[in-house]
Amino acid sequence: MKLLHHSRRDPFFNIALEEYLLKHFTHEFVMLWWSDPSIVIGKHQNALAEVNYPYVYSQNIPVVRRLSGGGTVFHGPGNLNFTFIQNGEPGKLVDFRKRTAPVVDFLNKAGVPARFEGKNDIRINGQKISGNAEHVYKNRVLHHGTLLYNANLAMLNEAIRMESGRYVDKSVQSVRSRVTNISALIKNAPAFEEFAKMLGGYLYDYFATEDTYFLDEKDEEAVRLLVREKYGQWEWNYGYSPDYHFFGSARIGNKNIGLTLFVKKGHIGSASFSGGYLQPSWVSLEKSLPGNRHEATAILRLLKEHAIVPGHQRALPAELFALFF
Prior knowledge:
Blueprint: E1 2-5, H1 11-24, E2 29-33, E3 38-41, H2 47-50, H3 53-58, E4 63-65, E5 73-75, E6 79-87, H4 96-109, E7 114-117, E8 121-124, E9 127-137, E10 140-148, H5 153-159, E11 167-169, H6 192-206, E12 211-214, H7 217-231, H8 234-237, E13 244-252, E14 255-264, E15 267-274, H9 280-288, H10 296-305, H11 318-324
Parallel strand pairs: 1-2, 1-12, 3-4
Antiparallel strand pairs: 2-6, 3-5, 6-10, 7-8, 8-9, 9-10, 11-13, 13-14, 14-15
């Protein structure tokens, strides 16, 4: 087992790095890291259905699809991520309780009564502090999890707030849980960086780590290439979502308008407005929607082209966000 040390905060780079380490090495790794504010969704999730898209879009919070399945998590300052990449016998690699054990042990030794609960959570007094996911590649497993230490829970809750019934699909849906910060339960809690250092030292001893691994320029370039070709691409982060139907509604002016979309690989396949008589601009917009991405920039461009919003408009008004997302 090697302890990997790096200080990158780019969420696209960090998620791509995990795949690179999993697939291009035979070494086992343990890595602690954190990213700038971002939302990380499971491989088989519908990106738009998992986030508060108007908020995420307005705050420029990136959504990154990871290699593993499972639910959506929020990354950012105050949220410490841990990654274990280990070898084993095919068919016996997935074991959430076993792989979270060192983190649970560390927290209990620090005076935090943490327990592994459910399928893949670490909780304290029933409140979630860690979500975990795994991905198997040949005889190797990638296990990664979050640790809410002193994260911005208000931003977290707003960013992943969902409105039920608008997206209908067969994707893996997140189960929302009450969350809390670890630091709130530790008397004289250390700073985030000190907490990370303490956990790193514990894991170094727990796994009898051989040495520290530093990324060289070859590694850096390989990960950057993976970002350019996959993790930084809309086609992976949004377009990979399962096919879905979307049902939107909003009051536009003095009229209630409904919208039904069928979306395949992130692109609108069919569109239908409802609400009685529609202005000609809305009728022509309905015909123009198919073939376009179901995302704010594309929708705003079409609304400008059909003179439904002024050409100088720089963002979707709230009522139009409600209609299209």
